[in-house]
Design brief:
The protein has 18 helices and 13 strands. With 407 residues, it is of the alpha/beta class. It starts with 6 loop residues before the first strand and ends with a helix.
C-alpha cells in the first residue's frame, strides 16, 4: 500500500554543502514518490532548489563565523577566534530570527513533517508547533568543551564559553523555557528519529546512547549528483607519479594549510592535485594542479591517496573510492571521524591545531599511506561494503514514509 502524499519541509544549515547536499538527495527521492517538498534556503534563494521544483522559503542562516569553530577543542577556538573568543558570552546568534523564519515557513507551507540537517532551531520550533521532525545526522561525536570551559571559568574567575555553549545558552533563553513548559513538545523531541548517512562500522554508536537510543536507520552515503552534471574540469598533465588529491571541503577555516601541503609535496615522487575553489586556492604550477571544486568522484578515480579534512561526506566518498587518507581535522565532528578512520586502518590523522602543521609532518604521512599496503587494503574493504550497499536516498525515503504512516 502506498503512502498518502505529504508535505515535507527540509531545513539544512544554510549554504554548507555537506548539509544541503544530503537534504537534496532525500528530498529528490521523496519528490519522485509524489510528496510535496519545501526547502529552507538562505534569503537570497537557491536556484537549484527552485529548478528541482521544490518550494523555496528564504530563511536566515547562521553565518560561517558562528559555525566553523563549533565542536572544535577549546584551545582551537581560542586561537582561531582571537579577540572574538573573549566576547562570546555577550555574542548574539540571532536565535529569535532563526526561529521566526522557521515558523514563517511552517505557516506558509503547512508541513506534515520537518527534516532538518544542521540548522539548530527546527527540532524545537517543530516540536512547539506540533510537527513531527526527523534528523539527518552522522553519529560522529563532537568535542565536549563543557569541562574545559568550567575549568577555565573557575581559574579566571569569570564566564568562559565555547561557541557551542554560548549558542546553547541563547537557544535555551529564547526557546528552552517554552519547550520545558510544553509536554507535547517534550514528547515530540523524545520521539524524533534519525537518518544516519553512513555504515554501522564507520559510525560512533556512543552518540545514540547520549541521544537516548532514538529510532534510526543507517542508509549509507548520501551523494548528491547535481554537481556531476557540470562541465568536466581541465585534466591534469600526464605524469607517471601517483596523484595525491587535496580536498578540504567548502568551509575549512585555515587557508594557510594549503601552502603547507604544497610545500610538503616539493621534490617528492607524487603529484599533487587540489580540488579547490575560491580566493584561497593557490595557482597551478609545474608541481601542483588546482581544479574546480566539482566532480569529486572523477578526481578520486585518478588518485592514489587523499588529503582531506575529515568531513563525513568526503570521508565516505574517499572510502567508496577505496583510497587511503591523510586527515587534517579542525572541528569536533572531523576530529572524531579522523580518529575512526585511523583506528580502522584506512589512513592517518594529523593531530594538533592545523595552523601548526609542518610540511615535514604532511610529507611523512603521505609517504606512509602511499607505501603501506595495509592502509589501502582496509580502505578497499570498505569500498567493497559500500559498493554492495543499496541506494542511500531510497533507504532514507523508505524510513521517512514508515514514520509518516499513522499508527
Amino acid at each position: 500500500m502506498g503512502v498518502t502524499p505529504r508535505r515535507i519541509l527540509f531545513a539544512p544549515l544554510g549554504h554548507f554543502m555537506a548539509h544541503r547536499s544530503r537534504c537534496l538527495c532525500v528530498a529528490n527521492a521523496l519528490q519522485r514518490r509524489g510528496h510535496a517538498i519545501g526547502f529552507l534556503t538562505p534569503p537570497e534563494g537557491d536556484p537549484e532548489v527552485t529548478a528541482l521544483g521544490f518550494h523555496p522559503f528564504g530563511a536566515h542562516s547562521m553565518p560561517a563565523a558562528d559555525v566553523l569553530a563549533n565542536g572544535a577543542p577549546l584551545d582551537y577556538q581560542r586561537r582561531w577566534l582571537g579577540q572574538r573568543f573573549e566576547s562570546l558570552p555577550a555574542h548574539r546568534f540571532d536565535v529569535e530570527r532563526l526561529a521566526h523564519d522557521d515558523r514563517a515557513a511552517y505557516d506558509a507551507f503547512g508541513p506534515d513533517l520537518v527534516i532538518w540537517d544542521g540548522r539548530p532551531t527546527p527540532p524545537l520550533t517543530a516540536a512547539l508547533a506540533g510537527i513531527p521532525a526527523i534528523a539527518i545526522n552522522n553519529l560522529s561525536m563532537p568535542i565536549d568543551n563543557q569541562p574545559a570551559c568550567e575549568a577555565a571559568a573557575a581559574a579566571q574567575g569569570r564566564a568562559c564559553l565555547s561557541v557551542e555553549l554560548a549558542f546553547r545558552a541563547e537557544l535555551e533563553r529564547v526557546l528552552g523555557e517554552a519547550v520545558r513548559a510544553s509536554p507535547r513538545a517534550l514528547r515530540a523531541l523524545r520521539a524524533m528519529a534519525w537518518i544516519v548517512p553512513g555504515l554501522p562500522a564507520l559510525e560512533n554508536p556512543d552518540k545514540l546512547a547520549l541521544l537516548g537510543h532514538p529510532a534510526h536507520r543507517y542508509v549509507g552515503p548520501l551523494h548528491w549528483r547535481g554537481g556531476d552534471a557540470q562541465a568536466v574540469p581541465p585534466s591534469p598533465p600526464a605524469d607517471d607519479r601517483p596523484q595525491v588529491l587535496v580536498t578540504l571541503g567548502s568551509s575549512f577555516p585555515l587557508p594557510q594549510v594549503l601552502d603547507t601541503i604544497a610545500r610538503a609535496s616539493q621534490g617528492q615522487n607524487w603529484r599533487l592535485v587540489m580540488n579547490m575553489a575560491g580566493p584561497c586556492a593557490p595557482e597551478s604550477n609545474g608541481a601542483l594542479s588546482v581544479l574546480p571544486a566539482i566532480r569529486l568522484r572523477e578526481h578520486l578515480a585518478t588518485s592514489e591517496a587523499v588529503i582531506h579534512h575529515g568531513g563525513h561526506g568526503t570521508a565516505m566518498e574517499v572510502l567508496r573510492a577505496g583510497l587511503p587518507s591523510t586527515i587534517i581535522p579542525f572541528n569536533g565532528d572531523q576530529i572524531d571521524i579522523a580518529r575512526r578512520v585511523d583506528a580502522l586502518g584506512c589512513g592517518l590523522r594529523l593531530d594538533g591545531y592545523p595552523g601548526d602543521l609542518t610540511p615535514e609532518a604532511v610529507r611523512e604521512a603521505v609517504r606512509s599511506v602511499l607505501s603501506r599496503r595495509d592502509h589501502r587494503d582496509q580502505a578497499r574493504r570498505f569500498q567493497r561494503e559500500l559498493a554492495a550497499w543499496p541506494d542511500g536516498a531510497e533507504l532514507a525515503a523508505d524510513f521517512v514514509e514508515e514514520r509518516l504512516v499513522p499508527a
